[in-house]
């Protein structure tokens, strides 16, 4: 029996659409082509144009949304000021407390109250 993939959370899809629009706008002339090249196979310039067009009913697929989130979703860490991926935040926040390592423990404690901490350890069901 094949397993059906869990559908992407609507808030994540909205975030991906926002990030995609910002990436295309930030890439300047030829932005859709540059972004589609960064996203890789299955993400053509024409697909991005259709997804971003308000006049077109083309909806962003889960696959495209996940590719956009992987490529462009970053948060500024309040502890060290560096940009981190949501996967990094999830990995640090949901790992066991690192006893015996003061720096790692301080980071782990800060992650527990961070506004970027995912609501769950489920990468697809997290709206943050």
How would you describe what is shown here?
The chain is mainly α and 128 residues long. It has two domains: 10-72, no CATH class; 75-112, no CATH class. It contains six helices and two strands. The protein has helices spanning 10-26, 31-39, 45-52, 62-72, 86-93, 102-112, and strands spanning 75-76, 83-84. It has a two-stranded antiparallel sheet. β1 and β2 (83-84) form a beta hairpin. The longest helix is centred in the first third of the chain and has 17 residues, at 10-26. The radius of gyration is 17 Å and the shape is elongated.
Summarize the structure.
With 128 residues, this protein is mostly helical.
What are the SSEs and their pairings?
Blueprint: H1 10-26, H2 31-39, H3 45-52, H4 62-72, E1 75-76, E2 83-84, H5 86-93, H6 102-112
Antiparallel strand pairs: 1-2
Helix pairs in contact: 1-2, 1-4, 2-3
List keywords for this structure.
128 residues, 2 domains
Look at the helices and sheets and give the structural class.
mainly alpha
Within the largest sheet, what's the order of strands? 1-2
The proportion of strand residues reads under 5%
Distance between the termini: 32 Å
Please write the string of helix (H) and strand (E) elements.
Answer: HHHHEEHH
Number of domains: 2
Q: Average pLDDT across residues?
A: 86
Query: What coarse outline follows from CA principal-axis ratios?
Result: elongated
Low-confidence stretches: none
Query: Gyration radius, to the nearest Å?
Result: 17 Å
Number of strands: 2
